[in-house]
Amino acid sequence: MEPMAAITDLLVAAISFYAYFKLRKPSAERGYLREYPLFFLFMGAGTLCAAIMTHSFYYLFSEGIYDRHQADLLPWSERFVWHLHDLPNWLFNIISITFFEIATIKRSSQVLKDLPVRWLYMLIAAESAAAFVLTVILLTYNVAGAHIFFAMIFLSLPLQIRILSRERENAESKYILAATFCMIVALAVMATRCSIDRWFNFTDLAHCLIAVTMYLTYMSAKKTFERYH
Question: Residue 74 gets which letter from DSSP?
């Protein structure tokens, strides 16, 4: 068991589900008002699966070899079976970030009038499909991490900067920029395996930063909802 990793994953899931239930509005007419709740719903589902299946009781879902490094040396078919307990988290994360990308495009519609929005949607669809397929083929979270990096850095960040260049007091974009910074730090922590203590390692620290990211994203979505309700 990895108790601290499970606890911090549950923290991310709790914030995500809280955001989903607070933002879920069946009467919402604007598209991104639907995508934001779905982003939080799938993120909550993914991190809940991670807390239970990856960090708490993974030995109930994987058979034979329990060491990840040894499992990575197995043939693909055996690695696939071994990683079945990881896949819900990874794939739900990819779906969640795809909804975030769609919400970002729709919320940025006022600054995208001179850009080929249709091509942006096609790019999102192709990139998300590639992430989904590559995750199943390579059986690693790194693909989902790259998907998140693309969404935050190459898609969301330029749009938020462009919005703020026109509306300096736009609270939604300020929150998203803060969330982007937190997510970049979280990805850097995971990449460098920067740990504070053996009982609070890089995974736990990254989860805490992701929890802050989710709260900041919720605050941005909340401001968006207030603008149109």
Answer: S
CB–CB of 215/15 below 8 Å? yes
Q: What pTM was estimated for this model as a whole?
A: 0.90
CA distances (Å), origin 199, targets 69, 126, 207: 21, 39, 14
Pick left, alpha or beta for residue 215 (phi over 0 → left; psi -120 to 50 → alpha; otherwise beta): alpha
> How large is the average pLDDT for residues 72-97?
89
Comparing CA positions, the residue from 185, 178, 203, 122 lying closest to residue 149 is 185
Residue 28 CB contacts under 8 Å (≥ 6 apart), including other chains: 34
Give Cβ neighbours of residue 196 (< 8 Å, ≥ 6 apart).
205
Q: Which residues of 93-102 are buried (b: 16+ CB within 10 A; e: fewer)?
A: bbbbbbbbbb
Query: Torsion angle of alpha carbons 88, 147, 219, 118, nearest 10°?
Result: -110
Residues facing residue 38 across a β-bridge: none
Of 206, 158, 215, nearest in space to 183 by CA: 206
Q: How far from 216 is each of 19, 20, 44, 195, 221, CA to CA, in Å?
A: 10, 14, 15, 24, 9
Say yes or no to pLDDT of 2 above 80.
no
